Amino acid sequence: MSEQKSNAGLQELRSKVIAKGNVSATDRYVASAKGAVVVDVEGREYLDFAGGIAVMNVGHSHPKVVAAIKEQAEKFTHTCFMVMPYGIAVELAAKLCAAVPGTGEKAVMFVNSGAEAVENAIKIARYATKRSGIIAFENAFHGRTLLGMSLTSKVKPYKFGMGPFAPEVYRAPFAYCYRCPFDREYPACDTHCADYLEEFFVNNVAAEETAAIIIEPVQGEGGFIAPPKEYFTKLRAICDKYGILLIADEIQSGMGRTGRMFALEHFGIEADLTTTAKSLAAGMPLSAVVGRKEIMDTVHPSGIGGTYSGNPVACAAALAVFEVFAEEGLLARGQALGEMLHARLLAFQEKFPLVGDVRGIGPMLAMELVKDRQSKAPASEAAKALTRFCFERGLLILSCGPYGNVIRFLMPLVITDEQMERALAILEEGLKAVSN
Questions:
Q1: What is the Cα–Cα distance from 384 to 407, expressed in whole angstroms?
Q2: Which residue, 72, 162, 221, 347, could crosslink 141 as a Cys pair with Cβ 3.0–4.6 Å?
Q3: Which residues are registered as beta bridge partners of 111?
């Protein structure tokens, strides 16, 4: 094995040529990946419970996706949709209009990344409402561009030293029931956090100057926090009352991650604009804003778009993703995986005092680690130790949350039962070791 084909050799070269701020969670380098398994350059296998940060819902190198990419690449890789369009993007837009929750007519615009989708959703909302204020939430993550950072809550590492930030962004408390910002308990609280928005309009930004409220149906980087169903019912009513648009950031929670194609389906309401990316194209750079047609069509011609927007190879991959979900029943599989994982995580909570909370929807689940359950002091070091323990034994997991003490699970939905059992056995060993 040559030096540059070993993990150590690549790590040494990396230290010379990759910017230090662009870090990786591990020091192992990928040679190949298939389904729910990643293989490094030295031949070691890892069960992947990170999924490229929620990108590989249909699994690594799914044959249908690979075939679609190859077929499209042989035809053409780029013409720029704004110059000479192509049917594959139009077909995908039709699929997204049908899949995103909402009964009325919808329209789509494509870009390349989740952050770009968020930026464009904000642009469209401001254009349509002729207002400037945007309300985001504590623990939110909406990207690393200037506006994305402005909307994102956590300072380190995402925003530290990167200011000043975009104006007219206002941050409200979120429905984080385990750590209620109002020191109340659900359901006795009657989702006071939603009602609080009326007060928020008095002291932060007037409702009449608010273009949109942007929210993750299940917060991703913030710790897989899922509000009670009635929270979204109230939020929708408040938006309707004041003519505020509701933007659902489904970048991490969408494309089957919660056992439904989009997480907002669990809450029985419709957003005005929805952003999607990550697992949309199974690793190809593609994102979209899907919204009510009358809102999307307010923007003047050429007011939105981009050189690489809706790349044809990425669109082909995304169409293949929709086929995989339909043909392999991945939504039903996701629901079954969620039930299996939830039961095991609850068992771990019973067994290990370190596990303070288990939460999420469907297979988008997490456990929050605490030093003790009474104080709920975050066990951030234990979370780091657990991720290291599991990785050394062949299981890749990620932490998240404002304190880095939440372990999230993003396994591909094509994972086998045997692989799930093996992964959960490693996780239990890790919890035992870290607890001791």
A1: 9
A2: 221
A3: 287
Q: Is 362 left (phi over 0), alpha (psi -120 to 50) or beta?
A: left
Burial 290-303 (b: 16+ CB within 10 A, else e): bbbeebbeebeeee
Angle subtended at Cα 233 by Cα 229 and Cα 236, rounded to the nearest 5 degrees: 135
Asked whether the bond before 301 is cis by omega within 30 degrees of 0, the reply is no
Assigned token pair, 290:
């899907």
Q: Is the pTM of this model over 0.85?
A: yes
b/e map 114-129, b = 16+ CB within 10 Å: bbbbbbbbbbbbbbbb
Calculate the CA dihedral of residues 412, 416, 421, 427 and round it to 10 degrees. Answer: -20
Question: Residue 35: enclosing H or E segment and its boundaries?
Answer: none
Summarize pLDDT for 219-230 with one digit per residue, the tens. 999 999 999 999
pLDDT given for residue 220 in this prediction? 96
Q: Are 281 and 314 in contact (CB under 8 A)?
A: yes
Q: How many residues does the chain have?
A: 436
- Assign 296 to helix, strand or coil: helix
Residue 96 and residue 39 in one domain: no
Cα–Cα distance measured from residue 79 to residue 347, given in angstroms and rounded to the nearest whole number = 53
Q: What are 183-242's pLDDT values in tens digits?
A: 999 999 999 999 999 999 999 999 999 999 999 999 999 999 999 999 999 999 999 999
Number of structural domains, the chain? 2
Q: How many Cβ atoms sit within 10 Å of the Cβ of residue 231? A: 20
Contact yes or no for 363/334 (Cβ under 8 A): yes
Residue 260 CA to residue 253 CA, distance in Å, equals: 9
Domain termination residue (choose one: 271, 306, 328): 328
Give the DSSP letter of residue 50.
S
**314: which 2 tokens?**
């990425």
